[in-house]
Design goal:
The chain is of the alpha/beta class and about 110 residues long. It is built from 4 helices and 5 strands. The chain has a single domain, classed as STAS domain (Transcription Regulator spoIIAA), CATH 3.30.750.24. Helix content is about 45%, strand content about 20%. Strands 1-2-3-4-5 form a 5-stranded mixed β-sheet, with helices on both faces. β2, α1 and β3 form a beta-alpha-beta unit. About 30% of the residues are buried.
Length: about 110
């Protein structure tokens, strides 16, 4: 599984295309339900497409992390194809986006 506790308060998800995407996001949602003190950074570097189910799961995670747990969720490493989906669906306006994993981890550490 490509989900790791980067620190006590930061969960790093290295996402890939389905079926790993769905499995990893489900695992992250479960961990965030168990531990409500986790910020989450999702690396989309190996994701080449998103379908409606992927987007729905991502929005569910956003609601849990940002609204319910009042923590941070950041995305990074988004490819050109996936960025097009973000632009068309408006996801670019509701998610915090970073260039890469080191930048995302640093911004989560600075903001905590």
């Amino acid at each position: 599984m490509a989900v790791e506790n980067w620190s006590e308060s930061v969960l790093l998800g290295e996402l890939a295309d389905d079926p790993q995407y769905t499995d990893d996001l489900s695992a992250i949602i479960e961990q965030c339900n168990t531990n409500r003190n986790l910020d989450v950074l999702l690396n989309f570097g190996a994701v080449s497409y998103l379908n409606s189910s992927n987007i729905a799961k991502l929005l569910k995670l956003r609601k849990l992390v940002n609204l319910t747990n009042e923590r941070k969720l950041k995305l990074c490493g988004i490819s050109r194809q996936v960025w097009g989906v973000f632009l068309v669906t408006g996801l670019d306006r509701i998610f915090e986006i970073c260039d890469d994993v080191p930048t995302g981890l640093a911004s989560l550490q600075i903001e905590s």
